[in-house]
């Protein structure tokens, strides 16, 4: 069920934005639709998700119609601020969105189209567990307007999947990819590396399996042991070894080499795409500071520099909306220093990097030393951009500290 929400200041019951929030109509507008349901809780997961026994009064069958009420509230809040922007990206995340019937996901997407419009060239992504996708599901999602499916493969090695408490059948990854392809959807594969006991050979096997599926996009994330998870408890009890940072670094380098050799280009530290057209435009909107509205329990939003977040539990979320009240639990506006740190942190992670001229003086002075240390690309720095080398991607946090301290 994830960690605690930020504190922030109270959000108004009607969900209205503060009078001094200015919306730039030239900024892209993205929509995130959170589906907080899972069949089982994976031992490493710290996301705001719930199994059937954890719902305590909330009903999965009612969820889509409940979320539609929040979309209506959002439309009223934004309509007061000028012309509404059509959604340039829509992302169904979770949880496991494909645990809901395709008709429910279609209803949620239709509500977004009715409230804001959806751009003709919009990217519409659905995250999916391989066991929940077949030809019928993929076709129904495509007909509803979905353009892209992100399939949670995580690993091709049964022992690694067992350590992660992933219950899907590895053979179903290929079936899900084939179904998505047949429906005309772009395909992204999600991988996790560095699980306790996972070897370099295990990881190479997963990379080879992912490449053999010929996806358009691959995400590969290092396993992070989050406090409060079952995995953290097992490691604390000595049942499993903690992930090894050096091994994870070797795994990252192996992934970058294998994916690069297969024709993928890195465009963000943990993401590779066949070409620019197959990058995740929705995630790029996060990394470049665009506007987005997140719908669903625990979802976060960012519009005009204001951030807010919803109550976490589906029952509390439904109760608020049943009373025509915003589910927002709190909000904040980062000060200049926090906004600068976040901008450098996020933009330095993408292939285009950030302009040296946009750094504070202390950051500009640090660039030469970072080039000398092999963390920033020297040729890019000469052109006035901060772009991480492969080694710099492994030490991205240290680079950010040097550019902002």
Kindly describe this structure.
- The protein is α/β, with parallel strands linked by helices and 405 residues long.
- It has 15 helices and 14 strands.
- The strands form 3 sheets. It has a 9-stranded mixed β-sheet, with helices on both faces. Strands 10-11-12 form a 3-stranded antiparallel β-sheet, with no helix packed on it. A two-stranded antiparallel sheet has the order 13-14.
- The radius of gyration is 21 Å and the shape is globular.
Annotation keywords:
405 residues, TIM Barrel, Arc Repressor Mutant, subunit A, three-stranded antiparallel sheet, globular
Low-confidence stretches: none
The assigned CATH architecture of the largest domain is: Alpha-Beta Barrel
User: From the structure provided, what is the oligomeric state, counting identical versus distinct chains?
Assistant: single chain
CATH class of the largest domain: Alpha Beta
The separation of the N and C termini measures 34 Å
Which percent range describes the beta-strand content? 15-25%
Q: What's the shape? A: globular
Q: What's the CATH H-level superfamily name of the largest domain?
A: Aldolase class I
The residue fraction in helices comes out at 25-40%
Protein name: Heme chaperone HemW
Subcellular location: Cytoplasm
Domain Radical SAM core: 23-265
Family: Belongs to the anaerobic coproporphyrinogen-III oxidase family. HemW subfamily.
């Amino acid at each position: 069920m994830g960690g605690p929400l930020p504190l922030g200041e109270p959000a108004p019951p009607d969900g209205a934005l503060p009078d001094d929030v200015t919306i730039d109509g030239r900024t892209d507008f993205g929509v995130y639709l959170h589906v907080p349901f899972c069949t089982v809780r994976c031992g490493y997961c710290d996301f705001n998700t719930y199994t059937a026994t954890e719902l305590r009064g909330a009903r999965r069958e009612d969820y889509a119609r409940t979320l539609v009420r929040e979309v209506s509230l959002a439309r009223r809040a934004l309509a007061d601020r000028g012309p509404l922007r059509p959604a340039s990206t829509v992302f169904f995340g979770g949880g496991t969105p494909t645990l809901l019937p395709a008709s429910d996901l279609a209803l949620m997407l239709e509500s977004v189209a009715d409230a804001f419009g959806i751009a003709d060239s919009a990217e519409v992504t659905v995250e999916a567990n391989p066991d929940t996708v077949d030809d019928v599901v993929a076709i129904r999602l495509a007909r509803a307007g979905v353009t892209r499916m992100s399939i949670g493969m995580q690993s091709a090695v049964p022992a690694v999947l067992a350590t992660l408490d992933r219950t899907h059948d590895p053979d179903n990854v290929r079936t899900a990819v084939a179904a998505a392809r047949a429906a005309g959807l772009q395909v992204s594969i999600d991988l996790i590396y560095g699980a306790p006991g996972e070897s370099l050979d295990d990881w190479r096997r997963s990379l080879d399996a992912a490449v053999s599926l010929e996806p358009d996009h691959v995400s590969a994330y290092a396993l992070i042991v989050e406090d409060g998870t079952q995995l953290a408890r097992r490691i604390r009890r000595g049942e499993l070894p903690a992930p090894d940072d050096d091994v994870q670094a070797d795994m990252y380098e192996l992934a970058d080499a294998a994916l690069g050799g297969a024709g993928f280009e890195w465009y963000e530290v943990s993401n590779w795409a066949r070409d620019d057209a197959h990058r995740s435009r929705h995630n790029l909107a996060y990394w470049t500071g665009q506007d987005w509205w997140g719908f669903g329990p625990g979802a976060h939003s960012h519009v005009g520099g204001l951030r807010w977040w919803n109550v976490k539990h589906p029952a509390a979320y439904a109760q608020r909306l049943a009373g025509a009240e915003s589910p927002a639990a709190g909000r904040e506006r980062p000060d200049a220093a926090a906004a600068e740190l976040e901008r450098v942190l996020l933009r330095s992670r993408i292939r285009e990097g950030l302009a040296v001229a946009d750094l504070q003086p202390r950051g500009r002075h640090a660039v030469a030393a970072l080039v000398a240390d092999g963390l920033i690309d020297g040729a890019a720095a000469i052109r006035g951009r901060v772009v991480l080398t492969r080694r710099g991607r492994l030490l991205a946090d240290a680079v950010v500290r040097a550019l902002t301290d």
